[in-house]
Write a structure and sequence with these properties.
alpha/beta, four-stranded parallel beta sheet, 13 strands
């Protein structure tokens, strides 16, 4: 079985990481398949060793129009990959004019959208409206303030609880002392400039006795996947993007979240409404079961 997970991934590393989490779930369940992450992200390198990846350039709306889509990099990449299953992470509009013609099974994967205008886009030559009928199934992978009638699964997590490093090994690999101080992880992968600003906000914690470890996916300056080392830390400072937030909830870590404004995602809503949304089964595993049942 050939599976393609398609995302833009231009606003950060999060969507590529979500593709890695899904690839891990197929491996965990020993499903004979190949999963390719098709993306336009500068963070595609994170997938190395986890999944195949194909990077395509960003294209404007005219490249995906009815008259031009067949010559687009996106269309040609999908034709070359020829998937049996296509998982579309949010970016429905680039595929809109030809997805109905694709012969594969299609899943629209939805995480938080705070603004229903995401499903109706005004372009220079008209209006695009999301068409659920283009997909075999729509799946939402976290609680949503917008209801589009999607099937709900738990949040998608890169690792299951039994897959991360035990505390002693995590401490040793990071060079941390488990007894000398409270270990605090500062992990942030937001937009450029945010890391430095938020890091300064918490600079006082070192004077308060915390041993700090700083990690970011930017420019290879971090430990990836950082969730593998969660058992080493007593406290985490994190953004409130999808992956960071739900990993902390799933692993039940003490944390301080720093929600930031985004165009369609409301991170403050997530922090305010979802911190007690506990779950045991990884949504990535549930998604694999859905794919196998199509």
């Amino acid at each position: 079985m050939k599976i393609v997970y398609y995302t833009s991934g231009i606003t950060g590393s999060g969507r590529v990481v979500r593709g890695i989490a899904i690839a891990n779930a197929f491996k965990r369940k020993k499903v004979p398949c190949t999963l390719t992450i098709l993306h336009s992200s500068p963070y595609g390198f994170l997938a190395d060793g986890f999944a195949d990846q194909v990077e395509i350039p960003l294209e404007d709306e005219h490249a995906h129009s009815k008259s031009s889509f067949e010559s687009s990099d996106l269309y040609r990449a999908l034709a070359r990959l020829d998937p049996d299953v296509l998982i579309v992470d949010l970016v429905w509009f680039t595929l809109h004019n030809f997805i109905g013609d694709l012969r594969c099974k299609k899943i629209f994967l939805l995480t938080q959208i705070a603004d229903p205008r995401f499903f109706t886009l005004k372009l220079s030559d008209g209006v695009l409206r999301f068409t659920p009928e283009h997909y075999d199934l729509s799946v939402q992978a976290e609680p949503l303030p917008v209801d589009i009638g999607a099937r709900a699964v738990n949040p998608i997590i890169l690792r299951n609880r039994n897959e991360i490093l035990p505390r002693d090994r995590a401490l040793a690999e990071l060079g941390l002392d488990g007894n000398a101080a409270m270990n605090c992880l500062f992990a942030y992968n937001g937009e450029p400039g945010e890391y430095e600003t938020i890091k300064e906000k918490y600079a006082h914690l070192e004077d308060a006795g915390y041993r700090m470890l700083y990690s970011t996916n930017y420019a290879g300056r971090g430990h990836f996947p950082i969730v593998d080392y969660f058992n080493a830390f007593d406290f985490i400072i994190s953004g409130a993007g999808y992956n960071a937030f739900w990993e902390i909830i799933y692993f039940d870590k003490e944390a301080a979240f720093e929600p930031m404004p985004r165009r369609f995602e409301n991170q403050s809503w997530r922090v305010g409404n979802c911190q007690e949304h506990y779950f045991d089964e990884n949504g990535a595993d549930q998604l694999v079961d859905i794919v196998l049942g199509l």
